[in-house]
Design brief:
heterodimer; A: 425 residues; alpha/beta; Beta Polymerase, domain 2; Rossmann fold; 3 domains; 6-stranded parallel β-sheet; 16 helices; B: 285 residues; 2 domains; 73% helix; 0% strand
Chain lengths: 425, 285
């Protein structure tokens, strides 16, 4: 195995540096092509917002595509100096590289442990390389293996349980209150960036209508236009709240726009028996927390949503140890299988060669003794020869298998081929 | 009980339900597919034994014993359907204790009686009307029981929301809206049954029994009280629009009252009946 991974991630490089090393589709295409043709590598290039990594494999007898070569190439393709790139990079070789890829794919090395996107990004990078004919035996075996292990980790541990984005947590809360959304009204108050993100999640629920209100009618109209909503004058906020099921508030107001006294006097009496969910993700808060009762009004502010997010991340940390154990066991299994694949054909050739010689010698002996032996005698002699062959081969085969496990089988494989002239056969 | 019938006892289905409940509780801690299948198999086995018991022994629904067993059976069907239909929710944790409670109560009631009335009472015209009365009240009882289960789940869910618990932690429950709908439908459907059962019972009492004594029996008074609570529930829901939490609590009160009504001795069977005309056989519903 001559496998290397060289790259940088959120731990080794700040975002502005990662941005400089990131690959768009055109650059990725060029890099995959060049690394294959110029450097004779199998290659998969993984470029996400949190990491840029080059997975390369070369024939065992050749020198690996190491950190130095990678730094030079990355500097060249991105128009940087090697000295600027080199300190950002890390390198993992062979078994460590196998473990690294598996950890990355299983999202154990992610900024948010257990996030679900990375496996898809790894798969996309592998598919891209495969289509460019940049992968060979090793990477074609390694990447599907890593994707399988990632799936196993997600299924068998709680590493991916729960949501870690504030918007997703908000939707989780909404789903605890409402069952269906086709008859629901969403009111968007304000036009902050977070509101737009959360609104995207809420839009996926397909509500009956979306109302948008803002101190600035132009902004209200803009947001309404983006989400197919209806702008509502700011002065009609109370009336709009009275007929709303889900309110998403994110104004930049310095004071709460909805104190409890106003809500209880102007909104609550006009509402029917339905529950109002308020997602107050503004800082400072737009709604008075006192209106929350968990029955008629369920109010969740940014602190509540962030707390759940933190809890989920903490919960996931508890599943790290079993996930790491799965990764370690599967990486070892992959390495054993890979090494066995390497020594297996030689062992098979060795056995075949010995079988052939044994059959020839036996045929000669039995021919000379023809007529003097019973069938039982023949079987006894044949058994004796087979036993002798097995005993003779036991040492070399055990040594080959052990060397494969240790990852140092190549010299021994070459020696066995030469000693027994297996290549010639 | 007749010895010629297959040896299906309360213990058969009660133990199956109990084991199913234990498995479902374990599934909360260790959510393995194997446990889900085991829980379903045990629950289905319990329901099968329960059905066989009811089919073969035919406990009279008009008695507390028979009524409780029939309501428990309907709830067991409800539990199994819910678990099959939506395996992520903790149906068993809420419904099976109720089923087990009703079966246990039936057993206790039966143990206190010298002889448990068996056989479906269809033989004569009055018995047919009496059975109809019993079936209406039982349908209402099933509605209240389903409403009670939904109410307990609602209260827990509302409490979790009030305390802003992690939405993906703890028990997997239905949304407030779904639970409220379930409660509303159960109570709304149960009310006409209860009203019809009550009216039919009043007519039967008036026709076949001495009016004064039986009208004030605990069963009749309890049923009237239950009907009044139902009326209050519907009024609060559709006219006053009170919160779901209050309605859930009131549904639980109705459920407790219903248990009292089911357990109370039936006026047709209790004491010495004093028929006005041709008389009515004892044990009739």
């Amino acid at each position: 195995m001559n496998l290397r991974v060289v790259g940088c991630n959120y731990r080794t490089a700040a975002v502005e540096l990662r941005e400089k090393l990131a690959f768009d589709a055109a650059k990725q295409d060029r890099a995959v092509s060049e690394l294959t043709t110029r450097f004779g590598c199998e290659v998969v290039l993984l470029s996400t917002c949190n990491r840029v990594e080059l997975y390369t494999a070369r024939p065992p007898q050749e020198s690996p595509f190491d950190l130095e070569q990678a730094a030079l190439y990355l500097a060249e393709i991105h128009g940087l100096t090697p000295d600027a790139v080199r300190p950002l990079l890390y390198e993992r070789a062979d078994a460590e590289a196998v473990v690294h890829l598996t950890r990355v794919t299983a999202s154990l090395d992610s900024l948010v442990v257990g996030e679900g996107q990375i496996a898809g990004q790894v798969k996309a990078a592998f598919d891209f390389a495969q289509k460019a004919a940049a992968t060979g035996a090793l990477l074609n075996a390694l990447f599907p293996h890593a994707l399988r292990v990632a799936k196993r980790v997600r299924t068998e541990t709680g590493i991916a349980r729960g949501h870690v984005s504030v918007s997703s947590v908000a939707v989780d809360y909404v789903r605890q209150v409402f069952d269906h959304f086709g008859d629901k009204t969403i009111l968007v108050i304000g036009a902050g960036k977070m509101a737009r993100l959360t609104l995207k999640h809420l839009e996926a629920l397909k509500p009956e209508r979306i109302l948008v209100t803002n101190r600035s009618p132009a902004k209200a109209a803009e947001v309404a236009g983006m989400c197919g909503g209806v702008p509502v004058p700011w002065e009609q906020l109370d009336a709009a709240l009275a007929e709303t099921d889900i309110a998403l508030s994110t104004t930049g107001a310095a004071e709460p726009i909805m104190p409890a006294s106003r809500f209880n006097a102007a909104v609550l009496p006009k509402r029917g028996s339905g529950t109002l969910v308020v997602l107050d993700i503004a800082v400072p808060r737009d709604f008075d927390p006192a209106i929350h009762d968990g029955d008629r009004v369920c109010l969740f502010n940014i602190d509540d949503l962030t707390r759940v997010r933190e809890q989920t991340i903490a919960q996931r940390q508890k599943h790290l140890a079993p996930a790491e154990a799965i990764v370690a066991a599967e990486a070892k299994k992959f390495l054993d299988d890979w090494n066995r694949r390497k020594s297996g054909p030689v062992i098979q050739l060795l056995r075949t060669e010995f079988d052939k010689v044994r059959a020839e010698v036996l045929a000669g002996i039995l021919g000379k003794l023809n007529g003097k032996l019973t069938d039982a005698d023949k079987a006894y002699i044949e058994g004796g020869f087979r036993l002798l062959q097995n005993k003779l081969l036991h040492g070399p085969i055990a040594a080959l298998q052990q060397a494969s496990k240790d990852g140092e089988s190549r010299p021994l494989l070459d020696a066995v081929r030469k000693l027994f002239r297996l290549g010639a056969g | 009980m007749p010895g010629s019938l297959p040896n299906v006892t309360h213990a058969c289905f009660a133990l199956s339900y109990l084991l199913a409940l234990a498995v479902e509780l374990a599934r909360l801690r260790w959510p393995r597919p194997g446990l889900r299948v085991s829980g379903l198999v045990l629950g289905a086995a319990g329901l099968f034994a329960h059905s066989l018991f009811l089919a073969l022994r035919q406990p009279t629904p008009a008695t507390a014993y028979g009524g409780l067993l029939v309501v428990a059976w309907v709830l067991a069907v409800f539990y199994l359907y819910g678990t099959l239909h939506d395996g992520k929710r903790a149906w068993a944790v809420f419904v099976l204790p109720l089923v087990l409670g009703l079966v246990s109560l039936a057993f206790v009631v039966a143990a206190g009686q010298a002889e448990v009335p068996l056989g479906l009472p269809w033989e004569s015209e009055h018995r047919l009307w009496g059975a109809l009365h019993g079936i209406f009240v039982l349908c209402a009882a099933v509605g209240v029981s389903v409403g009670a289960v939904a109410s307990v789940m609602y209260l827990i869910q509302a409490n979790r929301l009030r305390r802003k618990k992690n939405p993906l932690g703890g028990l997997k429950l239905l949304s407030l809206e779904r639970l409220e709908t379930m409660n509303r439908r159960a109570v709304t459907l149960a009310f006409p049954f209860l009203t019809a059962g009550l009216l039919l019972g009043a007519v039967l009492l008036r026709q076949y029994h001495d009016f004064g004594d039986n009208w004030f029996s605990p069963k009749v008074l309890g049923t009237v009280g239950l009907w009044a609570v139902f009326l209050l529930l519907l009024y609060l829901r559709y006219v006053v629009h009170v919160t779901g939490r209050r309605l859930a609590r009131l549904t639980l009160v109705a459920f407790a009252l219903m248990l009292g009504v089911l357990v109370a001795a039936h006026p047709f069977a209790a004491g010495e009946p004093r028929p006005r005309g041709s008389g009515i056989p004892e044990g009739a519903p």
